[in-house]
Amino acid sequence: MGAGQPVTRRMETGMNRPDLARPRCKWAQADAMMMTYHDEEWGVPVHDSRQLWEMLVLESFQAGLSWRTILRRREGFRRAFMGFDHDRVARFTEADVTRLMADPGIIRARAKIVAAIGNARAYVAMRAAGEDLATFAWGMLPGGKPVHEPNPGVQAASPLSQAMASALRARGFRFVGPVTAYAWMQAAGMIHDHEAGCFRHACDTV
Q: What molecular function does GO assign, one term (predicted)?
């Protein structure tokens, strides 16, 4: 893919066989699943609020783990969290927490599960207050455009991700610190962080 060609986001990683000869970000070279996720999803701008919420929940579960661990379980998370229907998740009870703690298809960390339910309620509260998650998140960026990091692949947080985390916490979101916010912004294309040698480094992802 040459410079100036848009990248189309896919949400079913693993359906296409990646081109092993393509140069990629170092973190994406572990296996075909990671390569396909990198090639088709990571860093492609997302402006859909529901999808952004799903991604934020998954990033919050990654804390202390590898992204590969989460990606392998993404379909399990989708089943367990009702297709990431925030309205349904916001109504989860203690019985649902117990159910999720027994589900081998997800990461069974009680604090993260409780936080995900709380984050669904925070999302619903934002919407009730007339605030759209996507509009809010992209509005945090200068000019509402993706930020190109000068040294991609080096840092795990930034002043922008610190501001994003603070703004999310002020709206009731939990398990979203600067590192998680940075990873979310990278994945959702708010921060363009493909490494210099990666074939997608020069791609126009806007």
A: metal ion binding
Rounded to an integer, what distance in angstroms lies between the CA atom of residue 52 and that of residue 126?
Answer: 14
Tell me the pLDDT tens digit for each residue of 164-206.
999 999 999 999 999 999 999 999 999 999 998 899 887 754 4
**37 a catalytic residue:** yes
Whether 123 is catalytic is: no
Q: Is 182 a catalytic residue?
A: no
Domain 49-192 class, CATH top level: mainly alpha
SS3 of the chain: helix, strand, coil, percent, to 5: 50, 0, 45
- 38 annotated as a binding-site residue: yes
Which is catalytic among the residues 59, 123, 138, 182? Answer: 59
Q: Which of 10-14, 75-79, 188-192 has the lowest mean pLDDT?
A: 10-14
Q: Which of 53, 67, 138, 184 is catalytic?
A: 67
Please give the Cα distance from 206 to 192 (Å, whole number): 10
Residue 194 marked in a binding site:
yes
